Amino acid sequence: QLQLVESGGGLVQPGGSLRLSCAASGFTFNYRPIGWFRQAPGKEREGVSCINIDGGRTNYADSVKGRFTISRDNAKNTVYLQMNSLRPEDTAVYYCAASGFTTTSQAMCSMEQEPYYAYWGQGTQVTVSS
Q: pLDDT tens for residues 12-33?
């Protein structure tokens, strides 16, 4: 009943761009921080970015800072990850996740995984290769 669905992944050349989308149904994003995570083959899942409840505060992994931008449109119940200047090491399955709690706090979001983020999408594949 509570679903997150990622879309927008695909194959792109190094230096290219993709925009990922994460749409929620069955619940609202309005009072939940949202995170993007990724898992490369043979690697542990890692935090990429997160955004607080109103979009006023964002956080990025050092590896993507300056290249990726997270945003949210609460009216559409959708979060985006704009990925520019993509590198082969960005190749991974990308997941979005919503916090398991609601809050009115505008504090910085967390990039910890469970139990902070309780609702997860199925993932979308991003492949960066020439």
A: 999 999 999 999 988 888 899 9
